[in-house]
Amino acid sequence: MKKLTLPGIALVATGLASHALADGHAKELTIAIVNNGHMINMQKVAEAYTEETGVALNWVSLEEGVLREQVTSDTATGGGQYDVINIGMQEAPIWGAAGWIEPLAFGADYDMDDMLPAIRNGLSHDGTLYAAPFYGESSMVMYRKDLTDAAGVSISDNDSWDNIRAAAEAIHNPDEVYGVCLRGKPGWGDNMAFITTVVNSFGGAWFDADFRPQLDSEEWKAAINFYVDLLGTYGPPGSEGNSFNEILALYNEGKCGMWIDATIAASFLDVDGVAYAQSPNAGNPVGANWLWAWAMAVPSGTDNADEAKAFIEWATSKAYVQAVANHPEFGWGSVPTGTRASTYEFSEFKDVAGFADAELAAIGSAAPEATDLKPYVGVQFAAIPEFPQVGSAVAQEMAAALSGAKSVDEALADAQSAADAIMSEAGYY
Amino acid sequence: MAIVAQETKFARIFWPVLAWIVALIFFFPIFWLVLTSFKTDADAVKPEYLIMFQPTLENYLNMTENYDYWRFALNSVITSVFATVFTLFVGVPCAYAMAFNPSRHTKDVLMWMLSTKMLPAAAVLYPMTFLTKNFLGIFDTHFLIILVLSLINLPIVIWMLFTYFKEIPKEIIEAGKMDGVSTWGEIRDILLPLAWGGVASTALLCFIFCWNEAYWTVRLTTTEAATLSKLIEGNRAPEGLFFGRLSAVSTAAVGPIIVLGWFCQKQLVQGLTFGAVK
Q1: What is the pTM of this model?
Q2: Is B125 close to A73, i.e. CB distance below 8 A?
Q3: What pLDDT does B275 receive?
């Protein structure tokens, strides 16, 4: 009989130990989350869930790209690494259709009808919910009413872009405040989220019905020329490096007269005189405001699917909203918003969230469904696997146009060429 | 003679000044990282708070209260120490054999070992995940991370040790052999004392590589064996980079290795310049 070598013994011992550990911790969930404030708060609120149910929760915070990579490699090797994962609205319908995540169905107490329809539809495929929303957002105008009043201009819901430009011009005083702050940092979830809503409002779209890129269309040219002119003339210098965090800092410093961005930003604003308006458009209001949600899903292959679904049911329920509101470290100002209609009915929430009505209206009017103009699902993205790659390539070109490194026409031509190569290689045509 | 004296005077001023400039350029990112770690996320992106700002420990408190820094740090220490020890345990005899008892294939073997470093890690991600999770059942264990870090660094360690050992006259080893010293005795009593600087610097570099490794330590762990690399990775938020928070985590991650390097710099320089001037 062959003798076992030292490494062999170590290997077997470790394997046995791992097995023993796995059996000993049957009521344990491993949850992969993206790093945002609501998810970090959940780790503390969920201590009560562990006390109540006895289910231990292991939290793994991951960068979005790494999380996608880990979930896909885990799924490809049979699953089991994570029991619950955070995913966004771009992935949920695609992964659901691919069978990578399990369909979700909850008890009557969950009150599925309370979930905001736009969010629910965006996380479903063929009418089946694949991810339960943890928080949702749209986009809207957040402007300094004290400045617009002083300048004698006004901004209304679904205003025209021309009026937005006029308002930016009126309040622009570069020594003290910039007329408008908008995302310029390249990234499919950064500058392209905002730019896509502008393009939509000009009647443009990413792809035609055959998924051929449409970046050389007149609508894209008009939209990008407007964006570059507006931000280049009345925006802060170096806007091609600004995204959510940078603009939030500028805004709270009193340097931005107007900001069009995620509704969630309103809960972080710390200046007086802020008012809200629904997103502007250039004649086409459909798709002028985006729609996004971070949601929780159960990857196929987990051995703890029932426990995972039970946890998600709790973490996205009305009771969870109450638990955050009643938590000594948080309160109504910290509850996750944009998912349930009932949240907006609490007077305590409305007292601390002056943006609540505007946010609810923005989410309610967001239109992710495919239309004749935009033959794909998604507002600020297209729900196809190739979109992050296409969006990232185009984002670089748009940042180049904004910085002046390329003309708008050059940037759009190069963007069209890059997008065309990706889509062609992916086999769409 | 006057010209020579003038050159010497010029060199006396020029080279130290150049050395300081280069040192400051290398040090600046570390300085900036530490400085930013004491700013709030909002202050970190404000141009007027580049140097003068109200310092805060908020980011460090957040790191320890919300992210369990010490668990990640302990895993980094365990995996890096054991991987370094194991790598040297295997690497020293290998380098000894190749340096003092070379065969005609020694150079080919050395080149082959180095060539394994050229394999893109992503190419074997799927088989590694499958083997370690489904077949061996060692996914997310210290044992796996120690093994992977050892195997990744073994080629470099053997190459470095081989280079240092080659500088030691073969006759000294042979003299020991003639006196009846065993192979282990040759390594322990003759080779290691003579090549101590080289071995120490190799160990230190290996430890640094293990500590900084971020591809496999992020992808082959979930919770049990996750190291500081995974903690940094997890602090990249979907809303963008929160520079204050990220800088605090990065400072806490690189801090121990910088302190270690500072205390061991004599050995490090000695090892890196070993045999450079004959």
Answers
A1: 0.80
A2: yes
A3: 55
